[in-house]
């Protein structure tokens, strides 16, 4: 695999993993109202979408920062 593609995939995957962890922590600590049932299907969909959107945003930022800082 060419170096640039490997570089991009590694940075995107790392940023996505960081974003998933942070998104899960933010969801669990800040967005779960006390009156809602935690087992409802809509809550799982909302949580999954929130974590995905959080992770995809952080992964693109991580890649952009890595491209800026690791220019050879």
General description of the model:
Keywords: Membrane, Transmembrane, Transmembrane helix. The chain crosses the membrane at residues 49-69. By secondary structure, the protein is mainly α. It has one domain (3-71). It has two helices and no strands. It has helices at residues 3-31, 41-69. Helix 1 crosses helix 2 (41-69). The protein is elongated. The two termini are 19 Å apart. The mean pLDDT is 86.
Alpha plus pi helix count: 2
Structure summary, number of beta strands = 0
Helical content band: over 70%
Kindly report the average pLDDT value: 86
Mass-distribution shape: elongated
The structure class reads mainly alpha
- How would a textbook summarize the main sheet? none
Number of domains: 1
The fraction of residues assigned to DSSP E strands is under 5%
What radius of gyration results from the CA coordinates? 16 Å
The end-to-end distance, rounded to whole angstroms, is 19 Å
Instruction: Give the low-confidence spans.
Output: none
Question: What order do the helices and strands follow?
Answer: HH
Transmembrane segments: 49-69
Keywords: Membrane, Transmembrane, Transmembrane helix
Question: Secondary structure elements and their pairing?
Answer:
Blueprint: H1 3-31, H2 41-69
Helix pairs in contact: 1-2
């Amino acid at each position: 695999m060419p170096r640039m593609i490997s570089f991009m995939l590694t940075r995107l995957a790392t940023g996505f993993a960081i974003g998933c962890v942070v998104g899960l922590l933010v969801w669990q600590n800040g967005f779960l109202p006390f009156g809602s049932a935690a087992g409802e299907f809509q809550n799982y969909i909302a949580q999954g979408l929130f974590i995905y959107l959080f992770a995809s945003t952080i992964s693109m930022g991580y890649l952009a920062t890595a491209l800026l800082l690791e220019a050879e």
